[in-house]
Amino acid sequence: MLEELSLGFPPIHLSNTNMSSNLLLFRSAIRPLISSIKLQHISIPTRVRASSHHLGRCVSSNAAAAAAAAAVIVSKDESYGNKQIISLTPQLYNYLLANVREPEILRKLREETATMQGSQMQVSPDQAQLLAMLVQILGAQRCIEVGVYTGYSSLAIALVLPETGCLVACERDGNSLGIAKKYYRQAGVSHKVDVRHALAVDTLKDLILNGEACSYDFAFVDAEKKMYSEYYELLLQLVRVGGVIVIDNVLWHGKVSDPLVNDPKTTSIRNFNRSIMEDKRVSISMVPIGDGMTICRKL
Ligand SMILES: C[S@@+](CC[C@H](N)C(=O)[O-])C[C@H]1O[C@@H](n2cnc3c(N)ncnc32)[C@H](O)[C@@H]1O
């Protein structure tokens, strides 16, 4: 029965951490649900039990119903006000992805990156779309990205920046930057991207020394997890009041919520999340998209 349920989900076509994180979160959240659905809700009518053909169809339709039902968790805990919370199943995530308007050039870059080592690091198309929309809502002219890799999120940002806009793209790895630059050229946005091949902290400090504090509208952080607090403090100096800093991987494959997981990266992200929660210099929204992103607006 469990196998039928799993087979009921369409395959996932993307491969990256954000996707697999969703899957991990989904699996850990859904396993007990599936077990209880199996026990409580999937009963096979006696009149079709004799036919394996009918049995298959019955299980499939029940499985589909169970899968759909499993996408919604209704908490019995009154502290949630009995609110229905959606759990992102692969089926539902595929639906969501089918409703993302991914530009052709980003699709090409994503597909080329998928063949490379580390492709799981790339943000997902729905995340990139949200980043681009935040840039547009802000009317941002000046942006910073910490952690470019092959350029998927930076290209999504550069594509929506005005012609006079600028994205400072911080990355320490020259090889992946080579691919990013190729796609900036193909997309005709190279003039908007100021590539900084260096350690991100050094670049951010240089920008401050160069008198650029409070002059940026938007920043996206997606690099070394243990450095998040340092990136954040420097970016808070560089971003103007009303500007936005988005931090990726704040749910860290769901590990942050598990008190038994205390490896250095998880602990570091958990501590960072706690410090942001208490930081009165920003308003915040933690969003369960990809591997979790926190949107901070400087007050
Ligand atoms: C998660 S990936 C970025 C993914 C990218 N945002 C995208 O959507 O494709 C993290 C990147 O940060 C870079 N990185 C890690 N530590 C860094 C540092 N200290 N300075 C600059 N880049 C760094 C890594 O080389 C890697 O390419």
From TrEMBL:
It comes from the Eukaryota. GO terms for biological process: methylation. InterPro entries: Cation-dep_OMT, SAM-dependent_MTases_sf, SAM_O-MeTrfase. Keywords: Methyltransferase, S-adenosyl-L-methionine, Transferase. GO terms for molecular function: O-methyltransferase activity; S-adenosylmethionine-dependent methyltransferase activity. Belongs to the class I-like SAM-binding methyltransferase superfamily. Cation-dependent O-methyltransferase family. This is Caffeoyl-CoA O-methyltransferase. PANTHER family: CAFFEOYL-COA O-METHYLTRANSFERASE 3-RELATED (PTHR10509:SF14), O-METHYLTRANSFERASE-RELATED (PTHR10509). Gene3D superfamilies: Vaccinia Virus protein VP39 (3.40.50.150).
